[in-house]
Specification:
Oligomer: single chain
Order of helices and strands: EHEHEHEHEEEEEEEEEEEH
Structural class: alpha/beta
CATH class: Alpha Beta
Number of domains: 1
CATH architecture: 3-Layer(aba) Sandwich
Radius of gyration: 17 Å
Distance between the termini: 14 Å
CATH superfamily: Class I glutamine amidotransferase (GATase) domain
Largest sheet: 7 strands, mixed
Helix content: 10-25%
Strand order of the largest sheet: 2-1-3-4-15-14-11
CATH topology: Rossmann fold
Length: 243
């Protein structure tokens, strides 16, 4: 069975392609909402199994990177009726852009994530690869998306503030993890905080990750690092209700 995945490029996403070659092109039908094709409406989404939104680059005053109320309602209808949302962020998170301005925070009722922190996680010595911004996660909570996965590499990752209900954190940082804040460059200890979460929203499912670069096919720390490919395959299987 072919999984139909729709990639949104209409909100200044940094991730402009999906790792089709690594996944196997015969198993996935991947389409794109191009940069000039928005706004998103339900008719765009209804025939797809997964909507992927990859690392929106928010600006302070721009409108192209924000979600309108109509887009939010369309996405909520899509997920609520059995579609799935894969949302990935990265260094800088939501750039401190508030919900009322239409940042990715508006998706929180589906994702369970209320804030994507503006900066980058820096891990302790036994939890990174080459440099502190390439996180290695090997203490993974039991869930279908982590089945058979022993190590995930997540480069240039932010962390979340999550709601207390209807969301489950799957990967958290280590006890000694620190965070470099983009606004002033300050570094502070954050300890264990969520960087991967899953949630159910009525009949649909969501997976949210603090890193997008783990998907890259041309990176030493991307889809070929650790068990990243297996991890992504598991995510897709869970989002398409195969597990």
């Amino acid at each position: 069975m072919t999984d139909n995945i729709l990639i949104d490029l209409s909100h200044k996403e940094a991730v402009e392609e999906f790792p089709e070659f690594a996944l196997g092109e015969e198993d996935y039908d991947i389409d794109y909402i191009d940069k000039n094709e928005g706004p998103i409406d339900f008719e765009m989404l209804e025939d797809y199994d997964i909507l992927y939104i990859g690392n929106v680059q928010h600006t302070l005053d721009g409108k192209a990177d924000k979600f309108t109320q109509d887009e939010l309602l369309a996405i909520k209808k899509y997920v609520g009726e059995g579609g799935s949302l894969l949302l990935t962020s990265g260094e800088g998170g939501d750039k401190d852009i508030p919900m009322k301005k239409g940042s990715i925070r508006v998706l929180y009722k589906m994702t369970g994530v209320r804030r994507f922190w503006n900066g980058a996680v820096q891990e302790s010595s036994s939890h990174f690869l080459v440099n502190r911004s390439n996180l290695i996660a090997n203490d993974l909570f039991n869930h279908p998306i982590t089945a058979g996965v022993t190590e995930v590499v997540l480069p240039n990752c932010t962390f979340f503030t999550i709601s207390e209900e209807d969301v489950e954190d799957i990967i958290v940082t280590s006890e000694k993890a620190e965070f470099k804040y983009s606004q002033d460059g300050a570094i502070g200890v954050i300890g264990p905080v969520p960087i991967c979460a899953v949630s159910d929203f009525f009949s649909g499912r969501c997976v949210t990750l603090g890193s997008s670069e783990f998907l890259l096919e041309d990176s030493d720390f991307g889809i070929d690092a650790g068990d990243n490919l297996k991890f992504l395959q598991n995510i897709i299987s869970w989002l398409t209700f195969e597990t």
